Amino acid sequence: MRLNADFSRRVLMRFSENEWLPSPMPGVERKMLDRIGDEVARATTIVRYAPGSAFSAHTHDGGEEYLVLSGTFCDEHGAFPTGAYVRNPPTSRHTPSAPDGATILVKLHQFDPAGRTQVHVDLDPNQSRQELYRDAFEEVRVEHWPPGGQVDLEAAGGMEVFVIDGGFEESDDAVGRWDWLRLPTGSRSTATAGPEGARVWIKSGHLAHAPT
Q1: Which segments does the entry list as coiled coil (predicted)?
Q2: Whole-angstrom Cα distance, residue 209 to residue 146?
Q3: Which of 78, 103, 153, 154 is geometrically suited to a Cys-Cys bond with 69, CB 3.0 to 4.6 A?
Q4: First and final CA of the chain: distance in angstroms?
Q5: Helix or strand or coil: residue 166?
């Protein structure tokens, strides 16, 4: 499967317009944002776990990172509530589950292959800018934009912006809660936060290393 696999193009995927698709595991559904591959894939996905659902034990050869959007997501390393950001490095293994249900934004096979850093950070609602992870390969952060605030989106190494709450306008498009915007390497844009402001998860730099 190839979905939004041309990383030289801007992509906007709206949560409300993207259908839930079944996964191989009962009770686990997903909205695909980009993907190269089948069940083992370089992928960006919103995954919804019904209460009591689980995935079989598996190894992430290319690494996994996720942000818990709702509920509590669990594995052998702990229980991660809404607002938890987790990085499981390449070669890590776990058995995920959601006893009470959960929805996560998850990215697979997008790490520096040599990275071995395990990360768990809880989002702080009182910070206007919170760095979650940084290395020579990429930067991951959360930003709070005030109502009507204008923000320059410098995507020298590419950028992804995921709306946690609120919304903004960019290139004449309204981008709302749980929508996902990808800007190609070398692009530059301006976002204007809506009347409620916006809280956004941003990943940048990594698309300079994306497949061509």
Answers
A1: none
A2: 32
A3: 103
A4: 16
A5: strand
Domain ranges (residues) in the chain: 2-121, 125-209
Q: What tens digit of pLDDT does each residue of 70-122 get?
A: 999 999 889 999 999 999 999 888 999 999 999 999 999 988 888 888 999 99
Q: Write the single-letter amino acid at 2.
A: R
Write down the pTM of the prediction.
Answer: 0.96
Q: Which amino acid appears at position 192 of this protein?
A: T
Domain spanning 125-209: which superfamily? Jelly Rolls (2.60.120.10)
Token pair, residue 188, equals: 């530059």
| CATH architecture group of domain 2-121 | Sandwich (2.60)
Q: How far apart are CA 81 and CA 70, in angstroms?
A: 7
112 DSSP 8-state letter: -
Equal CATH topology for 2-121 and 125-209: yes
- Tokens describing residue 162: 């995921």
The gap from C-alpha 166 to its chain's centroid, in whole angstroms, comes to 16
Alpha-carbon distance of 180 to 166, in angstroms, equals 13
